[in-house]
Amino acid sequence: MTVGLASVLFVAAALVGLGAFATVWRRDATAALAGIPLMFGGAGIAFAGVARFSSRAAAAVQPPSTQIVVSVSGPPLGQEAAVLIAIAALALVAMGIALAARAARIQGTRQEASR
Fold this sequence. Notes:
With 115 residues, the chain is mainly alpha-helical. The chain has one domain (5-114). The chain contains 4 helices and no strands. Helix 1 runs antiparallel to helix 3. It is elongated. The relative contact order is 0.13.
């Protein structure tokens, strides 16, 4: 089975759409943060997919040389962008967990003070 660029971009768009839906659907801000890593994941998949298929296309266009090319490799810009996006998504998840813990702690102290 061969995966094409259109399939990769379709999966990326589906992840971005699911993340946007999850972000908009939630009323609480901490719960709405759960959809943002999905959107980041879709963007990372799109970057990595475009980088993979563009390096393959660039290698096909280059004139033949006397050297034997064992593998197709291009600039890993898409993979680097995907890693940076994954790190940003991880930081966002950590921030959401911290906000949720802080909100629970504040709500717990308010309940104790009202008694």
